[in-house]
Amino acid sequence: MTSHVFGRSSAARPVAVRGEGCFIFDRDGKAYLDGSGGAAVSCLGHSDPDVRAAVHGQLDDLAFAHTGFFTSDAAETLSDLLIEHAPAGIDRAYLLSGGSEAVEAALKLARQYFLEIGEPGRHRVIARRQSYHGNTLGALAAGGNAWRREKYAPMLVETTHIEPCFEYRYRDDAESSPAYGQRAANALEDEIQRLGPDSVMAFIAEPVVGATAGAVPAVESYFKRIREICDKYGVLLILDEVMCGMGRTGTLFACEQDGISPDIVTIAKGLGAGYMPIGAMLCSDTIYDAIANGSGSFQHGHTYHGHPLAAAAGAAVLKAILDRDLLTRVKAQGALLAEMLDSRFGQHPHIGDLRGRGLFRGIELVADRADKTCFDPARKIHLKVKAAAMQEGLICYPAGGTVDGKHGDHVLLAPPYIISDDELEMLVTRLGRAIDTAIAQ
Ligand code: PMP
Question: How many other CB atoms sit within 10 Å of the CB of residue 93?
Answer without folding.
Answer: 21
